[in-house]
Design a protein that fits this description.
mainly beta; 4 helices; 15 strands
Length: 246
């Protein structure tokens, strides 16, 4: 499995990647829990006229350092495991002047609404800006092209493909190897994948990617750049372990 043109990058908290006029910020790069290596998963894509936020682990705490709150903002939740939504508790910290639309898989709106209620945090209706939860459907009108497909995980999970300003950025969340991951990533300029497992590690009972499988998806999808994130906190215990060469 060779692709000499594929660029492999391991993410760390507050890392920035620029692709033309698009900037990608990795606000949290841990899976499962926070450690000295980083916060749980959150990624920000800054386009010319909007912000795209993917998942809301505790890395979202850095959002006000990098996000332009004067632009329209869209938050996409891949699934409801706590390391991907625990940072929703921090939404009251921010002021999205044009509001915040939160997108979730069809059928999961009520579950997410329960988390964003007064039992657990500042309820969504009491934020100091307009915000609503929207179930994903094919009739959405967005300022970018979106494709989403289910992935292979222990709970319903989505991967996302964004076409922004002539560039393709794909985010593959928690999953094992599957055809939908390859379909989403086809010809991506930047392919961002989770990397929970160590080199050579596989567990079909708890599907996640290791570096080799992430690279396989990148090569089979003809992606140009592969960025690994969501490193399991109990396996990648220091940043040195993220220096992966495969």
């Amino acid at each position: 499995m060779e692709n000499k043109d594929l660029k492999l990058i391991s993410a760390y908290d507050e890392m920035e990647i620029e692709e033309s006029e698009i900037k990608v910020f990795f606000l949290g790069t841990n899976g499962w829990y926070d450690t000295e290596t980083g916060n749980t998963i959150c990624t920000l894509i800054k386009g010319k006229d909007f912000n795209i936020i993917i998942d809301a682990g505790f890395g979202i705490r850095r959002l006000d350092k990098y996000c332009d709150f004067n632009k329209s903002s869209y938050l996409f939740i891949s699934h409801l495991h706590l390391d991907h939504i625990c940072g929703l508790h921090l939404l009251a910290k921010f002021n999205f002047k044009k509001g915040l639309d939160i997108f979730i898989k069809n059928g999961l709106r009520n579950k997410l609404s329960r988390i964003l209620s007064s039992d657990y945090t500042v309820p969504i209706k009491k934020l100091n800006y307009k915000s609503k939860i929207i179930e994903l459907n094919n009739n959405l009108k967005l300022p970018f092209k979106l494709k989403y497909l289910p992935l292979k995980h222990s709970v319903p999970t989505l991967g996302f493909r964004f076409e922004i300003q002539g560039k393709i950025i794909t985010f593959i969340s928690d999953t094992g190897y599957c055809k939908n991951a390859i379909d989403l990533a086809k010809d991506s300029d930047i392919l961002i994948t989770e990397c929970s497992y160590l080199v050579g590690e596989i567990n079909d009972n708890w599907p996640h990617l290791n570096p080799e499988i992430a690279k396989r998806i990148a090569i089979e999808s003809n992606s140009k750049k592969l960025v690994l994130t969501h490193f399991a906190a109990d396996k990648y215990t220091d940043l040195k372990q993220r220096e992966i060469k495969i």
